[in-house]
Amino acid sequence: MKLSGYFSLLMKIMEKEKQNMISRFLQRWGQLFGGTKNAPHPKPFPGDRFFYPEELAYLSKTGEPLSQIEKWAVEAGKKAYIENFGSTASPGFNHVQWQGGIMSSYVKGLPVADNETEQVAKLKELKALNYILPDKQLDIIRKYEARDILDRYFKTNNGDIYHAEGLETGDKEEPTLSLIKYTPTDISGKKESIGFEKFKNDFQTVFHPLSSREEAAFNDRLTDAREAKIQYEMIGRTVLDSPIAITEGKIAIEQQKAYGVENGMFIPESWEIIHGGTQIALKGHSDTNEDKTLVIDHMNACNYKALLDVIYDGVYRQRDSKLSAALVETLGNKLPNGEAFYKTPRSIALFHTDKGVDIDSILVDKQGELFALSSNHHVELSQSDLQKMKNSLVINGIIEQKELEKDLIVPLMKDYVESLTIADDIHSGDIDKLPVNTRIKSLCRQEWQLEQAYNQYANHPADEDFANQYKAEWNAASLIYTLELKRLVDAYRINPGKVDLEKKARFDRLHKLLHFTPKPLRMEQNHSLDASNKVTKEAQRSANDEQVKSKKEVETHIHPTETSAADAERKVNIEDAEVSDSVEYGRWHTPDIKQREVYLRYGKLLAEKLALQQTYEKLPLTNNKRSLPTSLDKKEYQGIHAFVLALNTEKNGFFMRVYLTEEDLKRKKLLVKKDAASFPLIEKRGIVNVYNIEQTNYAFRYPQEYASLKNELLSEEQENQKENRLPRLLQPDRWSSAIFQDGKPNLASYNSKEDVIHIGRQDQYDREDDFYRDLAEGLIRSTRQKEARNTKYNALVKEELISLVGANMLGQENRFNVTVPQQSAIWKKRLRNAPDYARDVLVSASISQALVESCISGIKPQLGNDIDMRSATPINIDSDGNGIVDSQENLVADQKQGSKENQEQQAEDSVSHHVRHGRR
Fold it and tell me: Residue ranges of region Disordered (predicted)?
């Protein structure tokens, strides 16, 4: 031991003796002179403390009373010593640390912290001893206690079921548990809250957890409830969208009892849509034959799924029937007895029935019932025949509407011609005065839309042929519109004519029946049934907020596409000067400012996701259940590219993980939206900018190819979910490192000296993905033996992040999600501000992931374009993760020396990870 350390320890022991003497003096003073015995005073929370083995040895032998922290430290130091040297070794102690409410003991030079259970037990004991626990430590206890309660269902004695949704702490003195209450008669769910301590006290007496079978059955009920709400909304939407009023209908006799509600005490006979489609009134009778009415609205719709299925079927059939009847009345003739009759003016059949009968006319009686006729004989129609009849009437209606437009269009131009401000300029009129629902109005709208579409996209990449071809479509539409407009204006000036009001009414009626536009159903939503989506939706909102917040950061490094080339060049030059002033480089490499900017952007992107994950712990780094990002020709990105593109896709909310290069844009003659920012990828040839397919006009220009690509990706993702790649990682013969399942869940470790990976047993994990995350972290660390021996704190923190990112890259290949059980604040700080740190983390993780994958496949790793070997040996190395860049010369010398040491010690130590994996 150094002398300074010895004297420091001696001073601590003397100070301890002094405090013991004072304590004994005060105790005897109280015994001699008495005094009131006060209630125990609250004690401050124990501060951080580091225990040396010598201090622990002294504390274990002194007869003086020890504080609770000292007792735990003695016990932990002794246990760590035995674990380090074995039970047969002479008694001794290892270093122990108490920091932030966590006790850690050093085993084989590495700190091993208490697991969550041990940590909570110690905090509870301190609380019982009247120590004042900070809010952070209180939250740790509460979350641990709530772990077995949250997201579970509980049943009360009266049959109500409660779902524990979340624990709310905030600034409240007592945390509350958010619950959703379901009653036997109402499964819509009502939000309630209860004090967390009260719930714990009532646990197992008032609130009984559901068994797995009961929970599965209840989840089935909730699924039915969600489907019932969807069905209810579909009924309302169908009613609102229908051009013909739908108000009521009857329930078939055979369905009445089958769909009786309230345990058969109410038998529904008919339904009625009330309050504009927002409520459904059911009329029927009770089991005692009394008239009864039941009203279904958005609050209780979830309780009547089977009944809503029947009503929706009735509404849909009635809409089609009424639409067909209205078309017959509009296209045909009214008979003196009030009936309507339609026969096609052409001597052909309207349609052929499934049995081959030609239907030539249709009759609608006074009650609105449809009758198909063949040579004036009634023919019974099947359900398929009814659909054929409707389609035939719609086609004939469209033909009739076009004929009527030809007769009406010239007189209808009156308002537009009179609005012309310049007589010789046909475009000087008010386009709002063009006849509605006509071809000229449609041409005007199409020309305007193509103009807007052209203006929406930036001419990027700058290519005159490219821009001219897109503009040609707009010009073509403009020419067609101009010619038609001139024809109609000239025709009106020659012979304006008069509008036939009867034909106009018929024309408008046909348009209403044939071209009705669905309207959104405005209805109050009950979100309690969608609790399972709460985290995802809130996470997305937070991600959007983070995206807005980070735009200012990104804009200082990546100029928007709409800025001029001169401004962009000037901006980059300014930033290059600022960055180069702040960083020193070794003499072996030329500074690559643009590459540093890209890595800084990558770092910020990863830091944003880590910050988001602190709020939503179950959110994975990337959704690895989906397919890997691909190029337009369906080649999958790998390594760093796959990781950062997945982050970018999820941050921006893109559905398609397809990216196009600028070469793709030119080849396919595509344009990019003005507000779209490219995403940079680092390749050997330099920085390649790519755009997500949703940032381009690909869907507009190639609608069929886009739909096909979308369907292929969806099919591929469905197939990916069926294929189980996880067993690939559980092949012990593939790994040179031993894998021991003797550790703790969420705490993977790697012993570089013994070349052993330690993880928890698979049955100890709540989620399968978490087990494979720990296994992947251990495998990544096993490829970095030399780095694992650096026990400096910053280096350990950095290795933790590298193993996490590498595990996620493995997760992308093998389709398991990677969450972050614990984080270091250093990660986000360095990632946001140090491009070298971000580059070192990503490149190291990618190389390690490629090495692990090569062991799985038995194929020598091809590091590919996404790992520039100049970057794989970074320009500036921060080997210990402290933010200070080592000199390149010293690093190379260290590497040569380390190579020699490895060769000399191969007999007793494992070889470097590159050699070991290259040999397989």
Answer: 531-568, 892-920
